[in-house]
Amino acid sequence: MSDYRTPRPLAGPLATPALAGSYPQIRMRRNRTAPWVRDLVAENRLGVEDLIWPIFVREDDEPQTTIPSMPGVRRHTVAEAVEAVGAAASLGIPAIAIFPHVADARKSADCREAVDPENLVCRAVRAIKAAVPQIGIVCDVALDPFNSLGHDGLVHEGQVLNDESIEVLCKQARVQAEAGCDVIAPSDMMDGRVGAIRNCLDAADFEQVKICSYAAKYASAFYGPFRDAIGSSGALVGDKKTYQLDPANSDEALREVALDLQEGADMVMVKPGMPYLDIIRRVKDTFAVPTLAYQVSGEYAMIRGAADQGWLDGERAMLESLLAFKRAGASAVLTYFALDVARKLKEG
Ligand SMILES: NCc1[nH]cc(CCC(=O)O)c1CC(=O)O
Ligand SMILES: [Mg+2]
C-alpha cells in the first residue's frame, strides 16, 4: 500500500534507502560542511604523477627566449633544458615533452632537418637522458617545426601528401628513438602512420619504445601561441583542416582512436583539452585505454592572461582546469603549468 507521501525507491544508480526520500531527510550539503569530509568523498584527485611538462628548446645562438603569447613560458637552450628537467624530476613529474624552435635557415620543403640525428630535438634528448635518466621523454613526430611551409607533412602543389610524409615521419621517429626518446608521439594526423612507425621501430629493435598517438587532434584555433613558440606561425601556408579533425565531430574521433589502437598505439591523446572534455570521456568509456589530454598553448594563454590581468584567480583556475581532465577520464595531462602545479601540490 503505497501512499503518495511515501516516495518510491529509485532504481539503479540513483537508488536510496526507502525512508530517506528527499529533503529534509536528505541534505546534499552535509558532505560539504568541512574540508575533511569533502576530501573523504572526493571522486577524483590531481597528483604530480598526472603531469607531463611540454618544453621548448632553442639553439644557443638564438637570442629570443620569451614567447609573448605565453607569458611565463620560455625557450630553453639544451643546457637550460637539462637543468629545468632536473628540477621537474625532483618535483616528481614523471615525463616531459620536447618541442624545438628551429631557425628558418634550417627549414626546408623536404624537412631533412627532421631526420638528422644531430638536430636540436635529438641533442636535447641525449643530454636530458644522460643527466636525468629517471624522467620519461616524449617526442612529437610531425614535420611542422622543420618545414618551410609550416605543415605537419610534405607539401606538393598545395596538397599535404599522406604516404610520402609517412616515410619521413618513420625516419624521424627512428632518430628520436636512437637518441633515447621513450615515447614517440605522432601529432601529424596522417592516415596509417602509427602502424608504419610501429613496424619501423620494431625492425630497429625499439620494441619497448612506446607510441602515444595524437589520435583525436582537432584543427583548432587554440594552437596559436604554440606556433609562435616554435616559430611556425609565419611559415604556415593555409590551414591544417585537410588532416586535423573538424571541431564539429565526435564519432569521427572514436574512429580515429580505434584505428590508431589497431595499428599499435599504446596510449592515445585528445587535443585540445578543455573544449574537448566530452571526447576524452567518450574515448575512455569506449576503449578503456590510457587516454592523455593536452591542455594546449591557447588554453594556457587564456588562464594565464586573465590571471595576469587580475580577472581570474590563476592558481585556482589552473588546478580546477586540470582536475576537470581527471574527472573527464584522462590518465595524464600535458600542461605548461606542470611545474607550477607540482610546486603547489607539494606545498599542500
Ligand atoms: N604537430 C604540431 C603540434 N604539436 C603540438 C601542437 C600544439 C600544442 C599547443 O598548442 O600547445 C602542434 C600544433 C599544430 O598542430 O599546429
Ligand atoms: Mg588517424
Automatic annotation (TrEMBL):
Matching SUPFAM superfamilies: Aldolase (SSF51569)
Q: Does the keyword Lyase apply?
A: yes
Q: Which CDD domains match?
A: ALAD_PBGS_aspartate_rich (cd04823)
**GO MF term set:** porphobilinogen synthase activity
Alphabetically sorted, this entry's keywords are: Heme biosynthesis, Lyase, Porphyrin biosynthesis
Q: Does the keyword Chaperone apply?
A: no
Pathway entry = Porphyrin-containing compound metabolism; protoporphyrin-IX biosynthesis; coproporphyrinogen-III from 5-aminolevulinate: step 1/4
Alphabetized SMART domains for the sequence = ALAD
Q: Gene3D superfamilies per the record? A: Aldolase class I
**Which top-level enzyme class is recorded in the Swiss-Prot or TrEMBL entry?**
lyase
Tell me which EC number(s) this protein carries. 4.2.1.24
Catalytic activity, reaction form: 2 5-aminolevulinate = porphobilinogen + 2 H2O + H(+)
Q: Which InterPro entries match?
A: ALAD (IPR001731), ALAD_AS (IPR030656), Aldolase_TIM (IPR013785)
On assembly, the entry states: Homooctamer.
NCBIfam families the UniProt entry points to: PRK09283.1 (NF006762)
Q: Which family does it belong to?
A: Belongs to the ALAD family.
* Official protein name in the record: Delta-aminolevulinic acid dehydratase
Q: Which gene encodes it?
A: hemB
